[in-house]
Amino acid sequence: MIVMKVAKFGGSSLADGAQLKKVIKIIVADDKRQVIVTSAPGKRDKNDTKVTDLLITYAKQTLQRQDTSAICQAIFDRYLAIAQYFALPEENLTELHKILFELKDHVYPDAKYLMAAFKAHGERLNAYLIAKILNHLGIKARFINPKEVGFLVTSEPNNATVLPQTYQALAQLPVGEERLIVPGFFGLTKEGQIATFSRGGSDITGAILACALKAECYENFTDVDAIYVANPKIVTDPAAITTMTYREMRELAYAGFSVFHDEAIIPAIQGQVPINVKNTNHPELPGTWIVPETDFMPTQTITGVVNSNHFSALYLHKYLLNKEVGATLKLLEIMYKYQISYEHMPSGIDDLTIIFDSDLLTPETKQLMCEDIQAALQPDQLEWIDDYAIIMVVGEGMRDHKGVTQKIIDSVSEHDIGIHMINQGASRISLMLGTKRADAANAVKYIYQTFFEEENK
Ligand SMILES: Nc1ncnc2c1ncn2[C@@H]1O[C@H](COP(=O)(O)OP(=O)(O)O)[C@@H](O)[C@H]1O
Ligand SMILES: N[C@@H](CC(=O)OP(=O)(O)O)C(=O)O
After folding, report:
1. Whether residue 201 has its Cβ less than 6 Å from ligand 2
2. Might you report a single GO cellular component term (predicted)?
3. Protein residue whose Cα sits closest to atom 4 of ligand 1
4. Contact in structure between 277 and 290 (CB atoms under 8 Å)
5. I need a labelling partner for 83 at 20 to 30 A (CA). Which of 143, 222, 292, 347 fits?
6. Torsion-angle region of residue 394: left (phi > 0), alpha (psi -120 to 50) or beta?
7. Does the annotation place 223 within a ligand binding site?
8. What does pLDDT average to in each consecutive run of 10 residues of the chain (457 residues)?
9. Closest ligand 2 atom to 203 CA
10. Cα separation of 1 and 210, whole Å?
11. Structural domains in the chain, sorted by start
């Protein structure tokens, strides 16, 4: 087995020809970068639209039987501009044009599979084009079609997860002869349909390949120099994280560190492959390493702080709830009946709060669930709280430091921000606070200031 790396380049790194030029320089600078995972072209500037989003429009217009020629041309023009940047002769784009324009003519099992197939083509066409450009520049490279290499995923068209046999199939890839250019974001169901991971899922493809091929490391190239302690859109010039553990990243990514997909940690953990998040625009910088817990000694109390606004909570109060055998079971059965998973369930003696991902709820399911809970448990109070945000503070260093919780709560309360809920994660490396949505970003700022500005004064 050869020593190799998997390198994934995000949409921001592949947005146009100039960005792709930087990517190619990075690829050829290290012979170990043998497997390259590509996203679809992302935004070229703040007001631009990602190719994935253009494809979603194309899919919707197709479903509504509208004229799709303009959107199809807009998508094709993104690829054409990249090809032209490298003076790739236009005949190389004939196949790409055909695949793109004919997407609307295929038969799909249903609207969800149609949407998945359209979305996946952002990555598929980009990987195909990048392999052609590399060959044109004299760099040996081959496009890998997920269908031909057995990249199998579950039959959930737009929220798939990998099937175990995919790992054995990908381990057979002919690594070493030429660079393998693999499109991220999607796989094939056992029935042969395209299904995508959730949004941002090219990170997952990279991690699966890194695990299957026992890569030395998984490099994830993006548009920031490092993963920062807090989202740079919320905190000005936040401190960079040099090294963090898998479980810290998993908790932070889950709660909103959008720089790395939370599900992408899992294959990396399974294969114990270290992850290096780096900047395509400054590849000489060390970036952030995400490593196994065994290889890590915390130097800070907290590693990261993040807020997430896409939650809704159901508050239930009933005296003597703690004595009622089977109460939680009844609740879980109701959630199962409506096929709704829950995120957290902090509880007190007479009450509990169930926190849901609001994207999974419709007004109708909320109403039906409430009616069922009312009938099954007869609570004294049952109330949906939609104005709900979660602040997650994460750090391996939190376990061994006394008074951290107090300090976190004080830094928020001092600024008059009400806390609806406090939940110490079972892993003891995280603390979760519930606040109103409008307060969430400020809560992150104040916690950051307490631990990173006041402590270092
Ligand atoms: N804590 C954080 N550290 C760094 N970037 C963050 C953080 N939280 C959110 N981000 C955002 O994540 C973005 C990179 O992720 P993404 O847009 O998915 O990149 P790509 O297009 O490379 O896949 C950054 O531009 C930044 O705005
Ligand atoms: N292109 C897909 C998958 C992805 O991972 O993209 P990016 O690397 O730009 O986050 C999306 O927009 O969801």
Report:
1. yes
2. cytosol
3. 227
4. yes
5. 222
6. beta
7. yes
8. 92 98 98 98 97 98 98 98 97 97 98 98 98 98 98 97 98 95 98 97 98 98 96 95 95 90 95 98 98 88 94 93 92 96 89 91 95 96 92 92 90 93 83 94 97 76
9. 5
10. 13
11. 5-295 (3.40.1160.10), 304-454 (3.30.2130.10)
Q: What is the pLDDT of residue 103?
A: 98
Which residue has tokens 């500037």? 45
Instruction: With CA atoms as reference, report the closest residue to 123 among 65, 59, 181.
Output: 181
331 CA distance to ligand 1 middle (Å): 36
Q: Which residue type sits at 414?
A: E
